[in-house]
From TrEMBL:
It is an enzyme of class 2 (transferase). Residues 578-796 form the Histidine kinase domain. PROSITE patterns: HIS_KIN, PAC, PAS, RESPONSE_REGULATORY. PANTHER family: OSMOSENSING HISTIDINE PROTEIN KINASE SLN1, TWO-COMPONENT HISTIDINE PROTEIN KINASE. This is histidine kinase. It comes from Marichromatium gracile. CDD domains: HisKA, PAS. The keyword Signal does not apply. Its EC number is 2.7.13.3. It catalyses: ATP + protein L-histidine = ADP + protein N-phospho-L-histidine.
Length: 931
């Protein structure tokens, strides 16, 4: 306890020492503050003395717009009793007119600077008022300072100067001369009203502005050297065309007079401008007209000499004395300076005579003599000059009387244009047109010309052939009147005419259905072009029409074929989708059965189930593949039929046996109506059973459970007719025409309960057609069943004796004598699977994966049967067969081709093999070969 008390005492002593140190510091700080206050008091006394002693009115305002203090001089601006320090600024009574004072002080206190303002006093004085903020030590605005500077003397001076300037302005404004004063910085100090009007400005707008802004840079650049000369002290006077900015290009007489002070310094210059534009232009115009007259006289002389037409001038009323230019002399075949007048003194020596319309003209009938005598113009008078050497020239003459200043005729001027070449060219042109008309008339293209109202102007012989109307009949009517365009073509016809006549197009092309005179309609391709005169008015339209009915029929056929191809392509795409679906359906149970067997521990029931699934689905896959191959063979024309006389009734029964299990599983009732005797046809029994089973299979598949299917066979009119009718789902009538196309089925959903590739009816139609028969399909619609009728030609003669059908077994299941078999295939799985099957049948089997292995194994194994794949990796099966044919042991074995393609794909090389099998090869095929 004593120790704790001692510790507390020590802490108290320590705290007391700290307080003593703090008291010492506070004492020192207090002394400093006292010194600072004394300094501030001294400063404040100095400031007070300054404010009291200044003659400038100054007023201090705090942030609340209350007056803090003012200088004594400020009281001269206040009315007696106008206020006191501490009152609001707005309450002060001023001898000034300053309504904005309070607002502008508030702006300064808010941090917005204001410009100084001139304010008047009520005693005629003027003051320049300024407002400044003053800030505290922290930089914040702590108030505002207002000062007033007396500017009364300056305002009086300015007013006197304004009076003098006004008097000067009135004097200078009365003068027509442009007057201005420019300072040394090239700015306007003064200008009169005429100067401002000249530039289209107000006088106040010019004063103080740079000279370049008013004159414009281009004019300023031209006069600046003269201005600098005036600023240097030299007066100058000059005339110049100047492109003024506001007054346009003007010609002016300008004088610059230096503005000197008493000490000789130049402060600027005076400008005197007199607009002499009109005077200068008049002088220039007179000079220009004189020059033009001289030039025109020269030009006329030059034209007279250089003109390509003959020009003749008669100096008297009888045109006895005439001058002519060089071209005129050449036309008349005379020397240039001779007298060409036929009424002149040298007329008998002239080498030509003048004719008109086949008659020689007398002197008085010549165009120049007529114009001079009658005082009238003569235009486009056709003449022929006949020269002594037989040359004839064609001319066009014009003449006009020459009158003096009193209007009296004193002579004549004549012009001769040599149109010999043009006349001959026109003659050739007409001949060409005639030839062209003959060609156009012989052309298969109808040519017709028509006016804006569609009235016909020309109708070619080809048009007569194309449309049937004669030229006389057509030219009495119009395009509308002839009825060339049927009702459904009138709108396109109106559009075509409107575009041509309205000037929207100058030419167009269109295909139209046209009606001939006999009422037949034909397709014509029209090509139209517009001819217009120099003023753009329509003269006529030329139409060329070509009968393209044949081409249109061909194009229609091509479009139909394209649509059919597109539809076939669409069905192909659907078929590929269906094919993937149909191939996956049997593969799924096969895969499941194999997976179940792979699990092991299978009893006989499970094994039988798995084998049954694999067998059924494999047969289903075989049927799909065989259908595809059959369609391909039929399409290529490569299918082979083994034609023989067959009992069609027996084949119907065999087909029923094929579908009997499926029909029984669905609970269908089968009704069979066959004649008692044989119905003999000629055909391939296997293919006919395939046809019948396909039709029956469709009936079973598309009939709901517990349905009824009736099968009948009749013989009449030399044909056998098989009918299969069901009460199933039926077919929409619009779908029937396409059901016989490859890969086509009736309406179906994504569920695809029935499945199939849509090849059955295609095979039926083609196989029946190969037997010379036909197929008919009928349905009253969905839900009303379907009836299929197969018709075959009868074969005269007795019925076939054999009763063995295509479905009869080729042998029993008991294995025969063991054989040596060589299997060659590039797929190890195929070799292994076939080898296991053959060994199970009691045969000795060897395998190979290439053509080279096959050739080597033949000598080593000495097989009795070779199953040879055609597609091998090194050399194909055909080449292997070709090499084996050269060996002596070839007769000791049978060589069988195994391929996914039909035997027709082997071509001539099929003779190298003893037989041909399609993949996949079944056990029945192998047994048949081995036996």
């Amino acid at each position: 306890m004593t120790r704790e008390r001692c510790s507390t005492d020590d802490e108290l002593k320590t705290a007391g020492a700290g307080r003593q140190v703090l008291n010492d510091e506070l004492t020192a700080m207090n002394a400093r503050l006292i010194d600072r206050v004394r300094e501030l008091e001294t400063t404040n006394e100095v400031l007070d003395a300054l404010l009291v002693g200044t003659e400038v009115p100054v007023l201090f305002v705090d942030p609340r717009l209350r007056v803090r203090r003012w200088t004594p001089a400020t009281e001269t601006l206040l009315r007696p009793g106008g206020g006191e320090p501490g009152c609001p600024l707005a309450d002060l009574g001023w001898r000034l007119e300053d309504a904005e004072l309070v607002d502008e002080v508030a702006m300064v206190l808010a941090g917005t600077p204001v410009v100084p303002r001139e304010v008047p006093g009520d005693g005629g004085q003027w003051f320049l008022r300024r407002i400044r903020p003053y800030r505290s030590g922290t930089g914040q605005i702590d108030g505002a300072i207002i000062t007033w500077t007396d500017i009364t003397a300056r305002k009086l001076t300015e007013a006197a100067q304004a009076d003098r300037d006004h008097a000067l302005s009135r004097l200078t404004d009365a003068l027509p001369v442009l007057i201005s004063q420019v300072d040394a910085s090239l700015r306007y100090r003064f200008n009169n009203a005429a100067y401002a009007r000249w530039f289209g400005l107000d006088p106040a707008e010019i004063r103080g502005r740079p000279v370049v802004d008013v004159l414009g840079e281009e004019a300023f650049a031209l006069v600046r050297p003269r201005m600098e000369q005036a600023l240097a002290g030299s007066a100058c006077r000059f005339d110049a065309w100047l492109p003024y900015q506001g007054a346009g290009t003007r010609c002016c007489q300008i004088e610059y007079i230096p503005d000197r002070r008493d000490n000789g310094t130049v402060d600027g210059f005076f400008v005197l401008v007199i607009d002499i534009t009109e005077r200068r232009r008049n002088a220039e115009e007179i000079a220009r007209l004189n020059a033009e007259n001289r030039a025109r006289a020269g030009e006329l002389r030059a034209v007279f000499e250089a003109a390509p037409v003959g020009i003749y001038i008669g100096r008297d009323l009888e045109c006895r004395n005439m001058d002519m230019n060089r071209a005129g002399a050449e036309i008349l075949r005379l020397p240039e300076h001779s007298n060409p007048s036929l009424s002149g003194p040298d007329a008998t020596a002239l080498p030509f005579r003048v004719f008109h319309a086949g008659r020689e003209l007398s002197t008085d009938e010549l165009p120049m003599q007529v114009a001079a005598r009658e005082g009238e113009l003569v235009h486009d008078f056709h003449e022929e000059l006949h020269f002594a050497d037989g040359e004839v020239r064609h001319l066009i003459a014009s003449a006009a009387p020459l009158r003096d200043e009193t209007g009296e005729v004193g002579g004549c001027v004549g012009i001769l244009a040599d149109v010999t070449r043009a006349t001959r060219a026109e003659r050739r042109y007409r001949e060409t047109l005639e030839r062209l008309k003959l060609h156009v008339d012989k052309s298969p293209v109808a040519s017709l010309e028509w006016a804006a109202d569609t009235s016909l102007l020309r109708w070619s012989t080809a048009a007569e052939r194309v449309f049937g109307w004669s030229e006389v009949e057509a030219l009495r009517g119009s395009l509308r009147g002839l009825g060339l365009f049927p009702d459904d073509e009138r709108e396109p016809f109106a559009d075509m005419i409107g575009a041509l006549v309205g000037g929207l197009v100058e030419h167009n092309q269109a295909l139209h259905l046209n009606r001939r005179k006999d009422g037949e309609t034909i397709w014509c391709e029209w090509h139209n072009s517009v001819l217009r005169d120099a003023d753009g008015r329509l003269v006529s339209v030329l139409s060329l029409a070509l009968d393209v009915s044949g081409q249109q029929a061909l194009q229609t056929s091509l479009r139909r074929q394209a649509e059919q191809l597109a539809e076939a392509d669409r069905r192909k795409d659907e078929f590929l989708s269906m094919l993937g679906h149909e191939l996956r359906n049997p593969l799924a149970p096969v895969r499941n059965a194999l997976d179940r067997l792979a699990l092991g521990e299978t009893d006989q029931t499970t094994l039988d189930w798995a084998l049954g699934v694999i067998d059924r689905q494999t047969h289903h896959l075989e049927r799909l593949v065989h259908d595809l191959l059959d369609v391909a063979r039929i399409t290529r024309g490569a299918i082979e039929l083994k034609m023989a006389r067959q009992d069609l009734g027996r084949l119907v029964r065999e087909a029923l046996e094929v579908v009997e299990c499926e029909a029984r599983a669905r609970g269908h009732a089968l009704a069979l109506d066959l004649p008692p005797g044989a119905v003999v046809v000629r055909g391939d029994a296997t293919r006919l059973v395939q046809v019948l089973s396909n039709v029956l299979h469709n009936a079973v598949k598309y009939t709901d459970r517990a349905g009824r299917i009736a099968v009948g066979l009749v013989e009449e009119d030399g044909v056998a007719r098989v009918t299969v009718a069901d009460d199933g789902r039926g077919i929409p009538p619009d779908s029937i025409p396409t059901l016989f196309e490859p890969f086509t089925q009736g309406p179906r959903s994504l569920a695809r309960v029935e499945g199939g590739l849509g090849l059955g009816l295609t095979l039926v139609k083609n196989l029946v057609g190969l037997h010379g028969g036909s197929v008919a399909l009928h349905s009253d619609g969905v839900g009303h069943g379907t009836r299929v009728t197969l018709t075959f030609p009868l074969d005269a003669g007795p019925a076939p004796e054999t009763d063995v059908g295509p479905g009869a077994a080729a042998g029993d299941d008991a294995p025969g004598e063991g054989r040596r078999v060589l299997i060659v295939d590039d797929s190890p799985d195929v070799v292994e699977a076939a080898s296991e099957l053959l060994r199970a049948l009691g045969h000795e089997v060897s395998g190979g994966a290439s053509g080279a292995e096959a050739l080597e194994a033949v000598s080593r194994v000495r097989p009795e049967l070779i199953l040879l794949d055609i597609g091998l990796p090194d050399i194909d099966g055909i080449e292997v067969a070709r090499r084996l044919a050269e060996r002596p042991e070839r007769r000791a074995f049978r060589l069988v081709a195994v391929s996914g393609y039909g035997v027709s794909s082997l071509g001539e090389e099929a003779a190298l093999f003893d037989a041909h099998l399609l993949k996949p090869v079944g056990v029945a095929d192998l047994k048949r070969l081995l036996e």
